[in-house]
Amino acid sequence: MRADALFDEGIALAKKFKEDSHLPYLYLNKGNVTYIYETIKGQKQSEKKIIDNFKKTFHSGVEQQAWDCVTASFYGLATFYINMGTRDISPIRKEVETYARLNIPDSTALKDIAQVYLTVLQAYGTHRYEQSIALLEKQLDDANFMQHVHFYQIANTYSSLIRLCRMVGQHEKVEHFCNEFDSFVKDGDNMTSKVQAYGLLQEIYQEAGQTDLAQHYEYLKLKVKDELQEQHQLGDMEQNRFLRQLTQVSDELLAEQTENHWKTIVLLIISIAFVLLVVSLYYIVRSLRRQRRYVNVLYEKNQRLLESSQLLSRTSPSSTLTSHPSPITDDASQDSDERGEKMAPQTKEAIKHSILEVMSQRDVICQTDFTLSTLCQLSGYSHSYVSQVIRETWDTNFNALLNDYRIKEACRCMNDIEHYGNYTIEAIATMVGFSSRSHFSTIFKKVTGMTAAEYFKTARRKAAESNT
């Protein structure tokens, strides 16, 4: 990797010109860039190389009293080592003992969480795993910690806790924290931590023999990695331009061999990191804004359709998914043979009116056993007449019509924060006649063009805005 080579070049120059005070930051940034790059590309360093990189940062930081590098590298070393799953901490015992003796200023970044992991490692090293688990559980129960630390730090705490519980066979806690972890990462914004989180959940469920869940988290991991890869590619042109500039300046500085070499290199490296950060943030913000505008447009469109008598979806009958349990497609198929039958306009209008009257009765259509036969009984007309009117009036079949009315009802519930504000999506899905959330989510997306979660979130946001 080109960036990795440039950091090595910067480290060599810092050593050559005896600017050792910059070594901790060079080691730390090299490790971070390499780790993120490998997460995006799906490549892996050896565990020894990663640990050695943390150790170099730690010891050079102690020597130069670069305390922020010391706490960051110790925290990274601790979380990585616990996640390795080994019970022997002798390879990092020296760093643990050194950190315990240090008098680090209170204002140092990551000091508090690094101190927690020092205590965790001390218990871990003497096989007091229950104590290590209790310390991490206490951390997650700390409201101040959950509100004021970065997403990746909470993700690391969950990951460490799950690894420890699995190591000592506390399977119920593993399942509990996996569920909490899943809920937490869904709302997170750190893509790299999401890849790690979904990878861990995939591994755990794979070992537990829960193949469906393992495949689900593998899909989420790959999806986030694709997004990371896309962001990485968007910045390639800017990266290459600055990397070429850095190479040119580095060559000039090496030729001159003046005492100002290290300053120029460090400034250029910081500039590259800053530009990459700005570019990444720009595309992330732009993508989020575009997605939010798209969701708002879909939401407003569906709101207008809710207030009208039109269907939310104009899907072709042949491609329409059915909602459970409505297994009457055979009747509808048989009735389709009577397309050529002539019907008086007055009769057709009367049947349409009866259908609308029945379909407007929420308590009736949201029953899971509501079928075409039920509609025919309540309207007083035969299968063939009812199917023909549905087809000619709405250009669809009974199942699609029922799905549309049920989704409309679900949308109304989501918009009614006063009465259904405490309901979950799954509860609303069951209430309107769907037997599972997954099936409801599929139908909802097909009918409205947006996911149920997006609609639910937008409805709550609009309600909050209207109250302010």
Protein architecture, described:
The chain has about 475 residues and is mainly α. It contains 24 helices and no strands. The model is unreliable at about 315-340 (pLDDT under 50).
Summarize, please:
Helices cover 76% and strands 0% of the residues. It is mainly α and 468 residues long.
Strand percent estimate: under 5%
Mean pLDDT level: 80
Shape category:
elongated
Rg from C-alpha positions?
Answer: 30 Å
Poorly predicted tracts of residues: 314-340
* Biggest sheet features: none
Number of strands: 0
List keywords for this structure.
468 residues; 24 helices; mainly alpha; elongated
List the helices and strands and how they pair.
Layout: H1 2-16, H2 23-41, H3 47-64, H4 67-84, H5 93-101, H6 111-125, H7 129-141, H8 143-148, H9 151-167, H10 171-186, H11 191-207, H12 211-234, H13 236-256, H14 261-307, H15 329-335, H16 345-359, H17 362-365, H18 372-379, H19 383-394, H20 398-415, H21 417-420, H22 425-431, H23 437-448, H24 452-467
